[in-house]
Design brief:
This protein is of the alpha+beta class. The chain contains 25 helices and nine strands.
Amino acid sequence: MTEPREAGAPFSGRTAWAQGLSTPLREFLRTETGSAMILLAATLAALAWANAGPSSYEAVWRTVLSIRLDGLDVSQDLRQWVNNGLMTFFFFVVGLEARREFDMGELRDRRRLVLPLVAGVGGMAVPVAIYLAVNAGSPSAHGWGAAMSTDTAFALGMLALFGSRFPARLRTYLLTVTVVDDLVALGVITVFYSERVVPPALLAAAVIFAVILLVRAAGVRRGLPYALLGAAAWVALLKSGVEPIVIGLAMGLLTYASPAARGDLARATDLFRLFREQPTPELARSASVGLASTISPNERLQQLYHPWVSYLVVPLFALSNAGVTISGEFLARAVTSPITLGILLAYVVGKPVGVIGSSWLVTRLSRGRVRPPVGWASVAAGGTIAGIGFTVSLLIATLAFDGPQLEEAKLGILTAALCAPLMTWAVYRVTALFPKRLRIRALLGTAESIVDLAAPVDPDRDHVRGPQDAPVTVVEYGDFECPYCGQAEPVVRELLADLGDVRYVWRHLPLHDVHPYAQLAAEAAEAAAEQEAFWEMHDLLLDHQDELRVRDLIGYAGELGLDVERFRDSLRDHAGAARVAEDIDSADLSGVSGTPTFFVNGRRHHGAYDVATLSAAVRAARARAALRT
């Protein structure tokens, strides 16, 4: 259950009860970042196509595609199939991410739901108010929905261009805000921009959705029933006049997320071993199902659909909707158009004011008990980059406008998407002029992190290296037979040598289902601890990971000058087993599913554990600790 590390690659492997996986949030951000460039290319292609051959551009997207099945007829042009067909998958992924954040992410601390909820709503209400003020008394006022929603893909992608200039937690905060943004936007589409509602079809959709809930309650995990019922609900909503993309969001929100459980991982290991002994098709299928069942449906579906949505669906949406035929006459009309100006001002001014103002208001009213997880400069950057309102904004614009008004709305949306990154860059340049301590506070803030480590470090119990009063504590759950723990050990030593104000804690997590001598080695370390030699034994065990039998362990005790008879008796009586079991229990409570797993000041460290990456995490934790003293 281990994989070799390629030469030169960062230390990021894990030995696990099941294959170590990157965090869903990290995968989400990575996909969004890469897809932003594809989305930008699709937008430029749409503009080029619309100006080089406007008639062919419209002709292609107005081509009608009909599906007829036993008297059922669904007929739309290609643009509509993209907008309310493929975009259903976009909102499905939005729903998946919202549910994941609620179950496992920042919003699992329900107190943290208040701030992104208010920031998301405030970041929509202020832009809408600005748009309505610019379009007051005009028929174009009904298009206010096109001036409120942030494009998550574009915003996160553009934010990534600033690299480490802003803290990584800003991306998480912005993601939670834009999830709220997308949920509200879909509600607006459903309520305000749906066509005349046909009650019988809407009732049919409600009945189908009730069946979906019953199937879910029955514990059905296979995807086919949900796909068929979801498609039926989509058709019913389309016929009812309600925007059918709402079913995508609903299905996503129903899909729970959870970390892999140790019992499931152990069963998956047993199934793999059976297949290894008898590689038959039946056992291969059982092993495959067993491995898949360890990962929550939310994570599996995100892994499946999110790349397709980011790299195909959203760029295709941009290609079909972003085309604007630009001419001197059009620009002269658009610069004075209340639609163009309303959308531009809503995003460039309203979004930052709404996000920053509502975040400040919640912080002030709660007297600091609820505050952003980053500093105010980062919140300002999040507010400015949120001014990229592309995908959902274009979608609502196509529902609210047509003809010249739609073209004017598109120009406002595209111009705002150009201005937002420039404003974010300006925030960075201003922040860079601050004195160092003030700059750190402005970027990182002073809010407490969510603590992922279930059992706090106890110096009287835990094995600790480094100064007891260090501002940063690094906890590693490790396995003496795990090759990745062996790779991490010199990194930890270098980290402690370079950063003297760090204390390091080792906790046992022997994965005996994949490493047969790991439990014995852990008990040997505890037997050495009885003679005040834990760290000496710890180092020897990691230096000799392929020599962990009883005779080897007794030899190490003699090499360290320990009382060998006492050491042998401790091993025979399993005196350290209870202590090891306590660490295993704390690992379970902390959601640890592989080794090595690191926690920095109680916050789980995701990703690589090379010197540069761990040092960056430690320095960030140290900076936050200094701000709170």
